[in-house]
Amino acid sequence: MTHAEYPWLLPSDLAEAADPDQGGGRRRRTVRDWAVDTVGFVFAALVAIAVARTSRQLNESDAVVLVDRILGVTAAFALWARRSRPAATAIAVAVLGVVTPATGGAVMVCVFGAAVRLPPRRLAAVAGVALACGTLQGFTRPDPEIDPLLALVVNLVLLLLVTGWGMLVRARRQLVAALRERARRAEAEAGLRAEQAQRAAREAIAREMHDVLAHRLTLLSVHAGALEFRPDAPPAEVARAAGVIRDSAHEALQDLRQIIGVLRAPEDREDGSGDRPQPTLATLDTLVAESREAGMAVVLDNRAGDPATVPAATGRTVYRIVQEALTNARKHAPGAEVTVSVRGRPGDGPGAGLTVDVSNPPPAGPVPHVPGSGQGLIGLTERATLAGGRLCHGPGPRGGFAVRAWLPWPP
After folding, report:
1. Cα Rg for the chain, rounded, in angstroms?
2. Which one of 124, 251, 297, 366 has the largest count of C-beta atoms within 10 Å of its C-beta?
């Protein structure tokens, strides 16, 4: 909120609007309030002195001059109560003005204060009383040197001027209050957006950690379980399983180190600016080869064309979908052949986009229990939805399990 955005506001108003702690309720009298009230008091007192001198020049009695002075001073002192009781003060001063014109200055100040603080209906009533009392004063204390009609017109114009001025001040203060509330609301919304962004970042990191580590740790669990249940396995098979365990543990450690690095370094984003390159569709062959080395039978049918033409975010999503599907197949259908099919083309028409199918038949023998969180497919569905696509999964027509996803491929 700057002066360039709201040039009609004073710098103090902008500061008040920017500070939510100063708004609302009945506030203490500030230095500016004391200065304004003092100026109003002096103005009302000077008007009372001038009217008393005029009364003496018109050869009115000393009692009338004394009454003018007393009522003028009383009206001037009554101005100090106009902030807490604007309507009552204005009406009381206006009634005093019926018998003496010495309260004219105080009436104008009170009407101005009422216009600043009262709603339109109450202000109209106060201004009507002030106008009526000013009209009656023309009959009770007429000025022989001024035409009564002219005095009535002058009184009406002055009341309209001070009322309009007060309403303008009231409108500006309402604008300041609205800006103050807007600033408070904007601050609260900014905090809420920051919390939502932090929550979204944590959820994204949690999904990425699950997708990355579940594949590696499943390899560890499967091969460690094989070594546990087959202690009499040939040395070559034991050595191969131990090598897979070692490589999977190393890769899991590297992946975990990368995720922790993203948490510590904000510049490491998914655009590939981290220490390790992010997986894409081009690295899908490496993932399949790694699964084959771990003992899985995987058939890859990649008809998506040049992987370099696929957007990095889309390729990364395809990689995570296949990775999670292979992990689930390794856990729940060991020994079954897994078929991975990727096909598609860029564009917006029918048949455009990337389609990923991962399916496997039911396992031939008993399935060892491998613990899992059960959140992998849920995370894949959410990841595909965030990418603008869709994902479905379930038992295949001949048993087994199938995962099918479609992702947009912009031209």
Report:
1. 42
2. 251
User: At 339, which amino acid appears?
Assistant: T
**First-residue to last-residue Cα distance in the chain:** 42
CATH number for the domain running over 281-411: 3.30.565.10
Average confidence (pLDDT) over 304-324: 86
- Sorting pLDDT into bands at 50, 70 and 90, what band is 375? low
Contacts 24+ apart (CB under 8 A), 177-186: 177/17, 177/23, 179/1, 179/6, 179/14, 179/17, 180/16, 180/17, 180/18, 180/19, 180/20, 180/22, 180/23, 181/23, 183/1, 183/17, 183/18, 183/20, 184/20
**Cβ neighbours around 108 below 10 Å, total:** 24
Q: Between 303 and 141, where is the model more confident?
A: 303
Residue 156 is encoded by which pair of tokens? 């009406």
Domain coordinates of the chain in residue numbers? 11-191, 281-411
List % helix, strand, coil for the chain (3-state, nearest 5).
Answer: 65, 10, 25
Q: How many CA atoms lie within 13 Å of 290's alpha carbon, on the beta-carbon side?
A: 18
Return d(Cα 75, Cα 92) in angstroms, integer.
Answer: 9
Better pLDDT: 278 or 163:
163
Q: What is the pLDDT of residue 270?
A: 47
Residue spans of alpha helices (H) in 118-147: 120-140
| Tokens representing residue 266 in the block | 């904000």
| Alpha carbon 111 to its chain's center | 42
The dihedral over CA atoms of 55, 60, 66, 72, expressed in degrees to the nearest 10, equals -30
Backbone angles phi, psi at 47, to 5 degrees: -65, -40
CB 245 within 8 A of CB 219: yes
- The DSSP code for 373 is -
Spatial contact of 72 and 103, defined as CB atoms under 8 Å apart: yes
Could you write out the DSSP letters of every residue in 217-251?
HHHHHHHHHHHHH-TT--HHHHHHHHHHHHHHHHH
Structure tokens at 150: 């002219």
- Cβ proximity of 102 and 69 under 8 Å: yes
Give CA–CA dist 127/163, Å, rounded. Answer: 8
